[in-house]
Amino acid sequence: MKFNYNTEKKKYIRKWEVLEKEYETAGMDKSSIEEMKRFDWELFKKERVFCRHNQYLEVSYPYNEGKSPEQNSLMLKFIEKFSYEERYFQDSRYGWIEEIENTSLIKKIKNLNIAEIEILTMYVFEEKSQTEIAEKMNLTQPSVSRRIRVIKKKLK
């Protein structure tokens, strides 16, 4: 839902021009009319704030029909955050090893110790930096760098 302030304000003003005349002809005093107008104005402002800070996903509220989800920046953000790859939900954390088609490479990877496989998983599949891996495994960054070099040599 988009909120065009100028358009909505014009609608509000037109609505209240009509309502003021109706209330005056009905015999309402000016102070009561002004109080109701102020109440409606506060409601108008709250609705504007709500619309500025809340956006609907196309799935639940198709406000921009005709556009694909790729054209909606909010939808792109949620697709990125909530998408997953099936390999992360296989039997184990290291299910990606079984997906490799090269049997000699599989054997070499299976000969690595569990710490090396963990580093390889974080570095290649989770795309973590050496610093992030070092923090997670309580190592220094140079140590992680050396281990990655050793892993590369073992896999050649």
Automatic annotation (TrEMBL):
- Report the residue ranges that make up the HTH lysR-type domain in this protein: 126-156
Task: Give the UniProt record's GO annotations in the biological process aspect.
Answer: DNA-templated transcription initiation
Matching entries from InterPro entries are given as: LysR_HTH_N, RNA_pol_sigma70_r4_t2, RNA_pol_sigma_r3/r4-like
Q: Which Gene3D superfamilies match?
A: Homeodomain-like (1.10.10.60)
MF terms (GO), sorted A to Z: DNA binding; sigma factor activity
Q: Which PROSITE patterns match?
A: HTH_LYSR
- At the top level, the lineage of the source is Bacteria
Name of the protein in its database record: HTH lysR-type domain-containing protein
Q: Which organism is it from?
A: Candidatus Allocopromorpha excrementavium
